[in-house]
From TrEMBL:
Annotated PANTHER family: HISTIDINOL-PHOSPHATE AMINOTRANSFERASE, HISTIDINOL-PHOSPHATE AMINOTRANSFERASE 2
Pfam families tied to this protein: Aminotran_1_2
Superkingdom per UniProt: Bacteria
UniProt KW Amino-acid biosynthesis keyword: yes
Catalytically driven reaction(s): L-histidinol phosphate + 2-oxoglutarate = 3-(imidazol-4-yl)-2-oxopropyl phosphate + L-glutamate
Keywords carried by this UniProt record: Amino-acid biosynthesis, Aminotransferase, Histidine biosynthesis, Pyridoxal phosphate, Transferase
SUPFAM superfamilies: PLP-dependent transferases
GO molecular function: histidinol-phosphate transaminase activity; pyridoxal phosphate binding
HAMAP family associated with the record: HisC_aminotrans_2
Pathway: Amino-acid biosynthesis; L-histidine biosynthesis; L-histidine from 5-phospho-alpha-D-ribose 1-diphosphate: step 7/9
InterPro entries, per the entry: Aminotrans_II_pyridoxalP_BS, Aminotransferase_I/II_large, HisP_aminotrans, HistidinolP_aminotransfase, PyrdxlP-dep_Trfase, PyrdxlP-dep_Trfase_major, PyrdxlP-dep_Trfase_small
Keyword Transferase: yes
Protein's name in the database: Histidinol-phosphate aminotransferase
């Protein structure tokens, strides 16, 4: 008799369905024999990385036989200057995804409740489940977080709350006054994670700066990443900013060398490239306008987004439209796994990429015009 190695896994892990990433460009080229691909599926920075990051990586290449600096000293120094915080408040991660998992591992165990919004980023329920914790999805308000509903869902068993501002995939956001009102309702022994993966893109005056709220809310952890506006998605580097006690705990559970040397030097070099960040933000602002203007003129509905992506309501045949866009060489992201079977999420690209997507979408949706 052979052993059932699936049944042998711990219960939380048995229940997992792997995260579905955006379809890689090479895969589409292989499968469809296409040359030109427009990948607008993973909210990456279409400008490519900062040239300074590329140079820093070249400079560091001869040293890759050595282990990375496990403390991330230089990068933490730079981040602490950047934000005006102490280095002891920072936890570096292999992408902010790593940090999100460290937080669950440190603060939630079997039977504990982890609360998040309906339509929220898929990693929260995944990480909770893997830890054997109970994920509690609070019904959204429209497409966004219902912070009052989330506050009302907290129980004796709640250990963690995840908030995404803005949320991926919906692009919805909440204001500083809404967040402050929420935080005053949360008992101080419940840890609140504020995921600000897209914060650099946002110019709304009432958009809260999570880092500035740490002083008054010691149960808060803010997570940010170099994957989106900073253009380093492949290197896997993100971080948490929190009180130093929480950071101490997170640093105990992370792997000793969880962020590699090339990621550290590239992030450090990028942080100094303010012009690159400005260009990235400007490209996104113009691209969002380009995409939404065209959707409006076509009469196609979408969810207002402050991120570098937008969810478009294409209708009941979204899965089919996704496939037909692929045939045109355009990769977008289906979001049926988020309970949004009528939408597709598209990332803002370069002007010509946005144009290619919009033209393909128009041809598919309105074949006779
Ligand atoms: C992309 C994303 C992240 C993290 O990405 P990493 O590459 O792991 O840093 C985290 N949260 C949200 C909401 C995201 O969309």
């Amino acid at each position: 008799m052979t052993c059932d190695y699936k049944a042998l896994a711990v219960a939380g892990v048995q229940g997992l369905t792997p995260y579905t990433p955006g379809k890689p460009e090479d895969e589409v080229k292989r499968e469809l024999g296409l040359e030109k691909i427009f990948k607008l599926a993973s909210n990456e920075n279409p400008l490519g990385p900062s040239p300074r990051a590329v140079q820093a990586i070249k400079d560091a290449l001869p040293s890759i036989s050595r282990y990375p600096d496990g403390s991330g000293y230089q990068l933490k120094q730079a981040l602490s200057k950047f934000y005006g915080i102490d280095e002891k408040q920072i936890t570096l991660g292999n992408g902010s995804n790593d940090v999100l998992e460290l937080i669950v591992r440190a603060y939630a165990g079997p039977g504990d409740e982890v609360v998040f919004s309906q339509y929220a980023f898929a990693v929260y329920p995944l990480a909770a489940k893997a830890a054997g914790a109970v994920g509690v999805a609070v019904p959204a308000e429209g497409w966004g977080h219902d912070l009052n509903g989330i506050a009302a869902a907290l129980t004796e068993k709640t250990k963690l709350v995840f908030l995404a501002n803005p949320n991926n995939p919906t692009g919805t956001w909440f204001s500083e006054s809404q967040l402050r009102a929420f935080l005053t309702k949360v008992p101080e022994d419940i840890v609140v994670v504020l995921d600000e993966a897209y914060c650099e893109y946002i110019s709304e005056p009432d958009y809260p700066d999570g880092v500035a709220l740490l002083q008054s809310h010691p149960n808060l952890i803010v997570t940010r990443t170099f994957s989106k506006a900073w253009g380093l998605a492949a290197l896997r580097i993100g971080y948490a900013v929190s009180g130093s006690d929480i950071a101490d705990i997170l640093n105990r559970v992370r792997q000793p060398f969880n962020v590699d040397t090339l990621a550290q030097v590239a992030a450090l070099a990028s942080l100094a490239d303010v012009d690159y960040l400005k260009q990235s933000i400007e490209n996104n602002r113009a691209g969002m306008q380009q995409v939404t203007n065209r959707l409006q003129s076509l009469g196609v509905a979408y969810i207002d987004s402050v991120g570098n992506f937008v969810c478009i309501e294409v209708g009941d045949d979204a899965a089919d439209i996704y496939q037909r866009l692929l045939l045109e060489g355009v990769i977008v992201r289906p979001v049926a796994n988020y309970g949004m079977p009528r939408h597709l999420r598209v990332s803002i690209g370069l002007p010509e990429e946005n144009e290619a997507f919009l033209n393909a979408l128009e041809t598919i949706l309105f074949p006779n015009s």
